Amino acid sequence: GGRIAYVGDDAGAEPLAGPDTRVVELAGRTVAPGFQDSHMHPMSGGLRLLRCRLDGLEWPEQVARAMRECADRLDGGDWLVATGLTHDAFSGRGPDRARLDELASGRPAYVATEEGFTVWVSTAALAAAGVGVDTPDPERGIIERDPVTGAPSGTLRGSAVGLVRSRIPRPSAATYREALRRASELAHRVGITSVIDASVDPDMLDAYRQADDAGELTLRVVASQRTDPSRGPEQVDELVARAREIHSPRLRADAAKIFLDGDFPDHTAALLEPYADAPGDRGDLLVPPERLNALVARLDAGGMQVHVHAMGDRAIRTALAALEEAVKTNPPWQRRHHLAHLGLLRLNEIPRFRLLGVAANVQPIWAHADDVVADTELVLGPERTRMLYPFAGLFRSGAVVVAGSDWPSVSMSPLDAIQVAVTRRPLDGSRPVWVPEQRAGLRDLLAAYTRSGAWLAGRPDETGTVEVGKAADLIVLDRNLLDLDPNEIGRVVVLLTLVDGAVVWESDELEHPACGAGAR
């Protein structure tokens, strides 16, 4: 019935096998609980698989070539929507809309960075949104402009992104479900059985519900309903009502997402001290503290899990203060609130996570020196950059630490992320160890991706460990992670993924390894 009936040796298992039981000889390979990704975007990330992708392409030549090819595949007046544009494109005022008009053949076009806090838009897209020379910069946003005419030049930053993003035609429910199917297939291939979708709107939630009702949902999903930063606690009743309507073994929506700030390279992360390259700029909180306190208190009182994007140290401190106030004000209950990303987390803030019972939701794949860290050092300076992602300190503190990929950012694979966090080096070993004192332990990371992730998802009695009576959400790995050189972890292969005992991914090597157990 989808449950684990027995855990032990062969002698105890064999009497339970019937004539239709499939028996798989693992030959020393490893069974583990399915991985739980506590912060990703399966549906919106899946849409990127259906749209124009610019990940890893060099600016400007490779990007231009890819965008022309994408535009040629579109019909009529369809929008060209692309993601993954490198931050290199946005130096100074950013790229000009006239160039995008040419690449997109005059159609509306919207081209975003991986994080989506900075975008390049065409003349037709600006016109569709009614953005012109007289449009003021929105609060916490920038419309880059021609220095002579004052007309929008084609780059939008921060909250200004929403002026055009809101005009992109909405995908159909069928498109969302196809995006979810694509993302789920990728997730199962890397051993993921449960996810927290970090940001969904009502259309996405409807598509999730349709997929669940149709028996298409092969992941366990907690959908974090996106809050409106311009509104306060009056929006909570709507979120709670949707959460009460959606509650099945595979799908829940009793979580609310608050975007409190942005990211470092764009100066949109909220800092306690000014940016190194902009002495008057500390970034902005997307929700003022007073409104945040009222919103968090109302969400907590309504039994909603609070899920906060907090990258800068000021955002982290402000979010913890709001959660602390809610805990003091409201009656006790089984809270599972969490802050995601925690880029610039100061060491003196770490003990507050355990004291408040707030989970630290980290993205281990980011914890190495790469071009993004180099860009970050330019805006934060070397001292603060070395403070980024203090994973070892978080684990030592006794706080609940969970892990997520933030996919479609970089890599969805938990094994890739675990290798990076254990070594603090890129997967290919091409750079030296970065901030070695913050290397995390393998067992801690495995707990973050299994047992702790199950707790955060509200299923500690259902998933996260291999125990009799729990759901058979299991994976088979071609090697034992505990026996490996840490630099080999990312090369481990997931051979089988089960959800409720049903096969959702199986490699040909499971039954027929090419050269024996553990072969690649």
For the termini, the CA-CA separation is 33 Å
Low-confidence stretches: 516-520
Fraction in beta strands: 15-25%
- Which strand order does the major sheet show? 2-9-10-11-12-13-14-15
Structural class: alpha/beta
So how many helices? 18
* Largest sheet descriptor: 8 strands, parallel
What's the overall geometry?
globular
Helix content: 25-40%
What integer is the average pLDDT? 95
Structural Rg: 23 Å
- Topology, number of strands: 18
Description:
The protein is α/β, with parallel strands linked by helices and 520 residues long. The protein is 32% helix and 18% strand. It contains 18 helices and 18 strands. It has helices at 10-13, 42-50, 61-72, 97-103, 123-129, 161-165, 173-189, 202-213, 236-245, 289-301, 313-329, 350-356, 371-380, 382-385, 391-396, 414-423, 442-449, 451-456; strands at residues 30-33, 35-40, 52-53, 80-83, 109-112, 118-121, 141-145, 152-158, 192-200, 220-226, 251-259, 305-310, 338-341, 359-362, 401-403, 474-477, 494-499, 502-506. The strands form three sheets. Strands 2-9-10-11-12-13-14-15 form an eight-stranded parallel beta sheet. A six-stranded mixed beta sheet has the order 3-4-5-6-8-7, with helices on both faces. Strands 1-16-17-18 form a four-stranded antiparallel beta sheet, covered by helices on one side. Strand 9, helix 8 (202-213) and strand 10 (220-226) form a beta-alpha-beta unit. Helix 7 crosses helix 8 (202-213) and helix 16 packs antiparallel against helix 17 (442-449). The chain is globular, with a radius of gyration of 23 Å. The chain starts with 9 loop residues before the first helix and ends in a 14-residue tail after the last strand.
